[in-house]
């Protein structure tokens, strides 16, 4: 990892430690003085950064670090609003990746189809279970997945997953191996981390 040492590092406004920008959340300030979460790091202008942690966002707001970072251009910020907005951004990124996985044929949905595919060991890189899946089905899939070493993540509702996939309710989604699967795991881990802190 010597190469990463040469990359420009950024400081978290909360804990003041430096990190590779990839590990941090970027913020920009709108012309109206609103601090915006720039999760995809695409918005123009001066950026400020925090860790993907509720505590760091809280500390940055408490210590008025956003005001300082944006040189007085930022209006009042609320840690609650920033965190909610961050959670929404990660959630929408995950939904869009699941949509891409469907389009590229890297996805199987529905408890029966996923269960059937789970009889061969390399079918999925990960499994997504809706938060409102029935306990019986959820436990069955989790135990089978655990046996095969496939990680399971809880995300969204069966209605929202179904809607995204152009179906009725879908409480289980299996993602096949590939680049998208790795991105989805990464975002789901981030989601679990930040949303789990509520
Ligand atoms: Zn931090």
- The CATH fourth-level homologous superfamily of the largest domain: Ribosomal protein L30/S12
Helix content: 40-55%
Sheet with the most strands, sense and barrel status: 4 strands, mixed
Radius of gyration: 19 Å
- The average pLDDT is 93
CATH topology name of the largest domain: 60s Ribosomal Protein L30, Chain: A
Q: Provide the list of bound ligands, each named once.
A: zinc ion
The count of DSSP E runs of length 2 or more, i.e. the number of strands, is 9
Q: Report the end-to-end length measured between terminal Cα atoms.
A: 33 Å
Characteristics:
198 residues, alpha+beta, Hypothetical Cytosolic Protein, Chain: A, 60s Ribosomal Protein L30, Chain: A, 4-stranded mixed beta sheet, 3-stranded antiparallel beta sheet, elongated, binds zinc ion
Protein described:
This protein starts with a helix and ends with a helix. The protein has two domains: 7-77, YlxR-like (Hypothetical Cytosolic Protein, Chain: A); 92-195, Ribosomal protein L30/S12 (60s Ribosomal Protein L30, Chain: A, 2-Layer Sandwich). The protein is elongated and about 60 Å long. A four-stranded mixed beta sheet has the order 6-9-7-8, sandwiched between helices. The protein has a three-stranded antiparallel beta sheet with strand order 4-3-5. A two-stranded antiparallel sheet has the order 1-2. Helix content is 44%, strand content 15%. The protein contains eight helices and nine strands. The model has no long low-confidence stretch (mean pLDDT 93). With 198 residues, the chain is α+β, with helices and mostly antiparallel strands. It binds zinc ion. Residues 12, 14-15, 17, 50-51, 53, 56 line the site of zinc ion.
